[in-house]
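User: Can you predict the 3D structure for this chain?
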Amino acid sequence: MNPTADIKEAMRGVPSYLWRSAHDRPLEIPKPETVQRWIAALTNIERIASDTDDEYLGYVQRLRTVPVAAVELISRWHSYDQYNAKGAARDVVEGRWLIDKLRDEEAKARKNTVGVKGRQYVNKLRGQARDWASSQLDTDYERRDRKRDDPPADVLFVRKSDPSKIAVVLAFGPYTDPSEYDNRYTLFLNAVAGLSIYCERVIAIVPYDGNYWKWLRRHGVDRGNIDFFRVRYHAKDFEPVKLRRPEA
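Assistant: Here is the predicted structure, written as C-alpha cells:
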C-alpha cells in the first residue's frame, strides 16, 4: 500500500467548496506530505494523552492548537523523557516557549540523557519485569496486553480461570532526572494504593529502599496483596530484592 497515493486519492474526492475560506476565496490545497504530518501529529497527541495523568492531560490535548513542528519535537522528547516532555507541552500551549526555544530545550535534554536512553531503557526494564513477574505468580495467570480500559500498569496479568482477577506490575520510573523520584513519589504510591483495591496482586518495582509501607499505612492502606521489590535500575543484571514488610 502507498500511503501518499491513498491520501492523494482521498483529497481528490473532497468537494471543492471545502477548500474555500470564509470569504469564499480559494485556499491552497495542502500537499499529501503535509497531510501525512498532520495525521502523524494527531496520532502522537493521542498516544501521549493516553499515557498522561490529569495534571498534564489538558496541556497535551491543547497541542492540537500549536504548529505541527512543535508536536513533532515534543513527541521526540516524550520518547526518552515523558515527564519533562509534558512540562514542555505546557510551556508551548501557554505561549511561554516558541519553536526555537522548544528545539533548543529538547536538544539539551537529549544531550543530557546518558546510557540506555529514555524510552529504550523503559522498554528494556518493562521487558525484564514482564519476564520475571511470571515467577512471582501462580501458573493460572497469563500475561495480557493492556487495553485502554485496563488498569494503568506496566505489565498486566489475568487469571485464566477467572479473567476478572488481575495482577499488575507497576514500576517507579525510570526517570532521567533523579529529582523526579521525589516529585512523583506520592503519585506512584497513590497508584499502588488504588490498584490494590481491585487487583488481586500488586507488584511494585522501586529503585531504592524507602518508607513505602509507612506512607501507605499513614493513609490507611495495609493490604497483604502489595509487594515491593527493589531493583538497581542501572545495574548490569535485573535482580529484584523483596522489601520486608515492617511489623504493624
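The chain has a mean pLDDT of 80. The chain has nine helices and six strands.
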